[in-house]
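User: Second chain of the day. Same drill as before.
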Amino acid sequence: MNSHPSRNIWQRSQLSVRQWLGLILLGHLLLTVVYSLVIPPWEAHDEWAHYRYAAFIAENRALPDPGQRLTTEFEFDEASQPPLYYMLAALPMLLVDTQDGYQPQINPHIRGDNAQAGVNVVLHDPESEAFPWQGTLLALHLGRWVSVVVSLLALVVTFKIIRTLSPEHPQVALAGTAMQAFAPQFVFISAVITNDVLVILLESLLLLLALRLLVLGPRPRLVLQLSLVTGLALLTKYLALAVMPLALVAFLWAVWRHRQESQVRAQTLRSLVVFAAGLLFTAGGLIWRNFQLTGTYIPRDPVSQRSVLTGLQDGGLEIHWALLPQALQRGFLTYWASFGWGNLSPDQWVYGVWLVIIAVALWGLGQWLRTSSGARARELFILPLLFVLAVVSLPLLREILHDSPHLRGRYMLATLPVAVWMLAQGWAHLAWRFKWWLRFVPVAWTAGLGVGLLFFLLMPAYAAPRRLKAPQPLAIPVNARFGDAAELLSVALWPDDEVQVGQGVALTLQWRVLARTATPYALDVQLLGAGGQQYGSLLAYPGHGNAATNVWQPGVFEESYWLEVQPQMPLPISGRVQIALFDAHAQPQLLPVYDAQGQRAGERVQVGALRIAPRQAIILPERPAVAQVGQVLLLHEVAMLPRQRYRAGESFPVAMDWQALGPGPADLTLSLQLLDADNGWVAGDDGDFSQRLLPQHWRAHDFLTTTRWFTLPPELPAGTYRLVLVAYRSGDLSRLPVQNLQHPSSAGDMWPLGDIVVQ
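Assistant: Same format as last time:
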């Protein structure tokens, strides 16, 4: 493949390949440091546990027992991990006091729906976490910078791997290295404390040495380097067990490939001894120590080990192959961009673009491998493929063995050198055939994504809620004070009239902070039906966990939530949003609510009124109606006790079935009135037409049932009375007309329900 020097930015530049590589490393360094500053402490998977391992080494100048626990705050502990990464991370921590008593405050609500409760797994105090750092927080950032340095070395190894596979095209190596340097998931892993970053470096170095063995032959020094790196990878993470056989395969393949060389035949046995000695020197000590302290060779993940051993003893492993597609899909998504504890990811279209870029690259790579320029790669191609298979197979097998599709992409990031080589070489070949600028498409995409997600995903996710200089009233004024902590000024709901099951209600709250609380109170928001049924809820610290009440600052701020409507009966129904602040550790204790006049108003605030409807409208068969009330209701049937004689003071039920013709006035009131023989008012009972649906939420074809217990006055004289129905508006007391549908010419403002004889 010939390039176009006049059109190649790498070659047109006055910079050398090394200088370009230096700029790429500098760009990665700057971006990763910014990531490490933006990501709050402990907001990476198990970072607190990883940190405590390194801090233990710094504090005790010794390794922890792999059978003990170093943390109790989270479910998983890292003490059973191999120690190499933590020994490196502990080096700068030796200069810091890590025994300052610091402990993270766990956010218990994040275990629910992350989209509603936010992404912070722990509570953060911006003041205490701000620069200049001290104690634990200083040690954390120093440990993160160890990861940054390790990631820079990994990029150098990636450059050398691509140069080995595509030796004629240094621009391909530069493009591939740039892609890895700005790949969002690699940048994120490089910015936090995790042993995954050292595994990426060592397994990549293993692949580089294996390729060199195939090219140069099994020279003892190369074999020793390969065995040492393999052992060091195992000293970093037990997932490196997957690539240990590959190192042996590479050695034997190199012997076979160079079998005609006299020096190889003479050095084969010596090289094999060197290989075994290197592994024994590195990994052997770890395995022996584990056995002495725990009685097992590998104390990590005993459940998986027992599953494998039991399966082999029973004649076969029970592998849930049906989960394979779902696991691979999740692995792909988290391989390129998954932040936090796996609870923060970009929109799905981002992964769609990745798929297109990969598909085009594979097509271009296939074309290139058939050319003379791809001859070297064709000879070596099987080894990178075996490497990818080895790295992916063990975490994938572990997940589907446990009936889980949650394959984590960070376990497979050691395959990045192969992935970016395929992307860079495939697009470079298409650039040679079509347009010179095509080679920069995947580089531009990756760099743009690495920088863009920082500003448009990470920073907003961890940012404090928007503060206002002065209140900006929302649609629903509230002015309710929660204890002495805060005042809920106003609320906005969208939609504010009707929402269907499966949809959501956008809720914006505007608070005025009065003071911090000693304990972090959580926000409890519920969407309740007219009968108290819960149709949606969320529990979260304010500001999606970014503004817990124990770190509140005086002032006004807004926060917004999305409350998903859950299926519940009955439907349709009128609902309201209920808001409270509570302490989950006090069984629970709710902050009292005071109204604008300072009067105690309970412990919850109710706002809004909206119709909660089923996903599909419920259409019941048409029924004959006897009367029409205004333009809003049809009266179908009235049911009373089959009696006509009552005693004074007695109560009896009146049941009425209605069909709505459309929304009614919000103040529409149903009145049952007892009239004497001269149509004079004797007694009455006023109330709502429906306990389930407010009039403004009525829709055509809604069926309503009203049941009232009417009580006769205790001193009512004997005689015959008439019970009538009246519909009126409580605002101005105007009555709605009532039309007899059997005699359309008759009109009035009441409907007779029946005669009552009082004894």
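Confidence is low (pLDDT under 50) at residues 1-7.

User: Great, on to the next one.
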